[in-house]
Amino acid sequence: xxxxxxxxxxxxxxxxxxxxxxxxxxxxxxxxxxxxxxxxxxxxxxxxxxxxxxxxxxxxxxxxxxxxxxxxxxxxxxxxxxxxxxxxxxxxxxxxxxxxxxxxxxxxxxxxxxxxxxxxxxxxxxxxxxxxxxxxxxxxxxxxxxxxxxxxxxxxxxxxxxxxxxxxxxxxxxxxxxxxxxxxxxxxxxxxxxxxxxxxxxxxxxxxxxxxxxxxxxxxxxxxxxxxxxxxxxxxxxxxxxxxxxxxxxxxxxxxxxxxxxxxxxxxxxxxxxxxxxxxxxxxxxxxxxxxxxxxxxxxxxxxxxxxxxxxxxxxxxxxxxxxxxxxxxxxxxxxxxxxxxxxxxxxxxxxxxxxxxxxxxxxxxxxxxxxxxxxxxxxxxxxxxxxxxxxxxxxxxxxxxxxxxxxxxxxxxxxxxxxxxxxxxxxxxxxxxxxxxxxxxxxxxxxxxxxxxxxxxxxxxxxxxxxxxx
Length: 471
Description:
Layout: E1 3-7, H1 11-18, E2 23-24, H2 29-35, E3 46-50, E4 56-61, H3 63-74, E5 80-84, E6 92-100, E7 104-108, E8 113-117, E9 130-137, E10 148-150, E11 154-155, E12 160-164, E13 170-171, H4 176-188, E14 197-201, H5 210-232, E15 243-246, E16 250-256, H6 258-269, H7 278-282, H8 286-299, H9 307-314, E17 321-327, E18 333-345, E19 350-356, E20 361-362, E21 369-370, E22 375-381, E23 386-392, E24 398-406, E25 410-411, E26 415-427, E27 433-436, H10 438-446, H11 452-469
Parallel strand pairs: 1-2, 1-3, 13-14, 17-26
Antiparallel strand pairs: 3-4, 4-16, 5-16, 6-7, 6-9, 6-15, 7-8, 9-10, 11-12, 12-14, 17-18, 18-19, 19-22, 20-21, 22-23, 23-24, 24-26, 25-26, 26-27
Helix pairs in contact: 1-6, 8-9
């Protein structure tokens, strides 16, 4: 069976529809929870992605898999429409500049036009010039925007990709340590990368095992060799442009009409709570989509605080940035800096934030040097009375862990908030554990900034953390 990845507002319904005909891979955490099963993490044959305007989906990948998926989706409803695309993702063209605009050029590819930003080409281009371009971001036929072109030649994939003309390994991973690990793993794989191509590991590579990574790289290499062969055998004269040089992938577009969207509510409803018109409402706007999700999650909350629903709609977003707002019992509040949300699980209320440190000095209570290039990895959990921050040097070496005891953490769209309760626990690089700043908590109680009840809770939390870290 073909392996398919699905993304966007139609994911649950399409995953249910594909269950018996295709192997769904790289499923998101919500999909894994809803279907209560494991999904493979390897490379896809095709990916199905909701269009930016939410009106349908694009299908990109191996021509055979794209054709089969498009045929299946075309049968969803009476008002479902299907189109192929002459400017498929990854297709390589000798195009002709038809028009120059303020930020780029309109390029005639033959059956379609594309848009080439000036920043993607290393020379001045004028009307009538021939340019060799590749489709980097396809566009549906109903969209106002043209397909986005570039002059860098790439092989696309969900686990591994390649870029022509570079020799380095690029890895999209949650942190520097993950990127270095992926780069080291590349050297261990059996697949050889052709000369003149560099490896690009996508985010999903972090979850793939070595055999899946090697299979993904092998697939990417096959496409690179197809492109190299096409370029070596291009022939023709400049006057032949516009012309197609290589089409390693296919692209198809599916438009869902109103009846089709209501049809998709059925398979989704077989898996999870789905209000009537779920997909019709979601297709309208991102705010409408969020409202639908929140309403359905509230329906399932059984009288408990709907943490997953709240954080999915009104919490930080993975890949976004948040400030760490550090309150003090005397009423002051200041930011510990802004960091990137590298991992999140709204259902569990857990978020990992990565901050890059600047300046010099030492880390409080840890006694280790603070240097530019250091990284702080903080793990927050909604409602927990403490959070740990692990400090690492630019080389990945540990500089210790600092556990802050505080009022229960709250996670908002752009900030993490709590009030610091002074007492903390540290674990130094040598493994020694120490509880610190009890005197500051005592002083806060004396100053009537912290009640004795709250102080006792802070001491109890600190004692529990100390016992765990000292094991």
